[in-house]
Each structure stands twice: as C-alpha cells, then as structure tokens.
C-alpha cells in the first residue's frame, strides 16, 4: 500500500489479528498483533498478555492491579475458558527508581476446568531478577471466577471478564486492508483501501463482537508496595508470562512475554522483533528503543515521518517499557501523567485543539488539585494518546520537543470511547464476560 495513511499499519499492529478471531484458533497460528505477537504466543494463547492496568483503589490507601491474558475468547465461551497451569503470570514492580524489580506478584493455576484454583504469591522480594523466575511465598488461593479475600487482606479475582480494550478495528482495516490476517489465512488477494481516515463516530470492534479475556485482578493496601522502611511512592510496573523450558534449573521459569506500556511494543516493532523484546528485561532491551526511533523518523509509508527531536522525545517518554504510577498521589489514574508532569491528564480533545503556547495557561487555569497518579485504568484513552503522539502534535504540546509540522490530523484519533464497556463500581471492576 503506497498511500500516506499506509504508515498507520505498523503503528497499530497491536490489533491486526482481531478481525480474524474466528479463524485464529481454528486454522492454526496467524502472525498478527499483540494477540499472537510472537511464535511462543501463537502456540500458547494462555500465556498471551493482552493488557495490564494500575489504578487507585476504592479507598485512598489502596491500589488495583489487573492483568489480562488469553485474548479473543468468543462471546458465550468466557466461563468455559481456563488459565494455563503451566504458566507463571507475574507483575514486576520497581519501588526504588532503578527500573529493576524489587517486588513481584505472581500467579499460577492449579488444576483444569471449572474446579480450577489460582494461587497468588507475594508481593515479595524476588528470588532472582531478569528473565528467570521462581515462585516466592504463597499468599493464598482463589477459586476460578470467584472474588476472594486472602489472609493478607488482599482482594483477589481470577476468571473471565469482558475485554476492556476499545478500538475501531473495522475502520482501520478499510484504511489498511493488508493488515487483515483473514486474507492471508485463506490466501485471498488483498483489496484496495476503501478509506483514508478514521470515521466519526468510531465503532469499538471488541464491544461489537463481545470478546472476552481471562483476568487477574487484585486490590491491596498501597503500603504493601512500599520500599522497606519507606512510604508508598513512585513505582514502575511491568508484567510477564513465563514457562518451564528444557534446560532450565529446578523450579525456574523462563520469560516468554513481557508487557509494560499499552500498544508500544506492538506499535513500533515488526513481528520478527517481538520475540527479542518479549524475552528481555526492560533495562536490557535494545530492540524496542531502536524500533521506536526508526519508525518515527522513517518516511511514509514505512514510518511517521517525524523530526529527530520528536522521535527522541518519544523514546525518552516510553523507555524503559514500564508503566509508572505514584502511590503517594490522591488523584485518578491518568496514563503518562507522571512521565509528563500531569500534562497528559488534559482531555485529549483539548490537547488536540489548543495551540502549544496556550496549553500551559490552561493547565494553570484549571488549577489541577491532584498530584499525578499516572498508571492506567480501563477507561484511559491510550489509543488516542498513542495516535496523538505518533501522528499529531501531542509531543510538542506536552513541551517535549519542538513542533515539526508533520502531523496527519485524521489519524490522530479513532473516535471511540469506552461507552460500550460494562465496567462495575465494585471489585473486580471489569465487566462480566459477554
């Protein structure tokens, strides 16, 4: 595809396999998206991370962590899909600021079928750091699809939930039809593009088709994530799935997927690069930062055509690939708010419409009463923030780089909101399976 909008293909690769969801598990592996983003994920959907979240809990001293795995569970099949007992699911948490894990929160399923239980381990200091892990001390077990309060006071849920992510995938495939995996599965020729921009309003593909995931959700006192002898403060969070591989030591699990920020690894990397990032630690991954800068500076249709200053600012904001939150903050979750000193907390529509010189005046006029929690909750507009940074003026408007004049306005939003989701006011907060 040679139109200017063709370069959106690489930047939204995170979702390219969704339209072929009916065929993904019936005809065999399909190379597509973070849903099946590497050979290991293609062969083991139970280890495939779709999303992770960190947001303030219901009480001021609590925090919620959620990890979603096993993508594209069809409507009606959520309650009959179970966790993979051979997988270690893990949150890794840096609470001292060096981007290394100092706490881990781990999970593993026991048994199969509706009688399955899921064990939680930690949060505790890891036995080892990097891409090898062993289980820390057990905190308690939860029955599949039931909320449980563990002996340490943590609320824990492990079971099927509605996929909370939202995106207009159908329109995306009209813009970039060659990313639709179903054509490649069946060997059909790819049609010409039938659209050049996202539509208004957009339609959320996941909600329209009722897809589900398996969710691990915990709500705990923030103090449990504080450094020894200290108070809760800034944390960096990433997640992983690991399995026992041939040649591993006794009880050792080897990382096969790593997930930190939403739609980053998938946005900027080719399929062949994903496995390298998945099997590396955030601090040792050289592939992802190189891919971000390369894509941002490459000319369409192979990149976003941005200036080196904008590309460098993107790398500096997103690397290491860890989501940051401030547990000492009282405000709501605002994706990238810690990294941008709260500027990303402005409504995306405001940031898009207001000229750069006036952004800071608006920020002061609003009198933002919060310190900035950051993190990400299920309603956070991460796709609009990502598209606005890649194709729009978000990076300059956040004061991170000079304006380069290389924006593509109709690609800076998919015009979808989370209105089609069924979030709940009570734990585990994610909507019941469809």
Task: Furnish the topology, listing elements before pairings.
Blueprint: H1 8-11, H2 21-24, H3 39-43, E1 49-56, E2 62-73, E3 88-94, E4 103-110, E5 117-124, E6 132-133, E7 138-143, E8 148-149, E9 155-162, H4 169-175, H5 181-186, H6 205-209, E10 212-221, E11 234-243, E12 253-259, H7 265-268, H8 271-278, H9 287-297, H10 308-318, E13 323-326, H11 348-353, H12 356-366, H13 382-391, H14 394-397
Helix pairs in contact: 9-10
Structure description:
The protein is an alpha+beta fold and 434 residues long. The chain has 14 helices and 13 strands. It has one domain (4-420). The strands form 2 sheets. Strands 3, 4, 5, 6, 7, 11, 12 and 13 form an 8-stranded antiparallel sheet that branches. A hairpin with an 8-residue loop joins strand 3 (88-94) and strand 4 (103-110). Helix 9 (287-297) packs antiparallel against helix 10.
Q: What letter string, H or E per element, gives the SSE order?
A: HHHEEEEEEEEEHHHEEEHHHHEHHHH
> What's the mean pLDDT score?
85
Helix content: 10-25%
Main beta sheet: strand number and arrangement? 8 strands, antiparallel
Count the DSSP helices.
14
Shape call: globular
Number of strands: 13
Distance from first to last alpha carbon: 36 Å
Please summarize what this structure is:
The protein has 434 residues and is an alpha+beta fold. Helices cover 22% and strands 21% of the residues. It has one domain (4-420).
Question: Which descriptors apply to this entry?
Answer:
434 residues; disordered N terminus; 5-stranded antiparallel beta sheet; 8-stranded antiparallel beta sheet; globular; alpha+beta
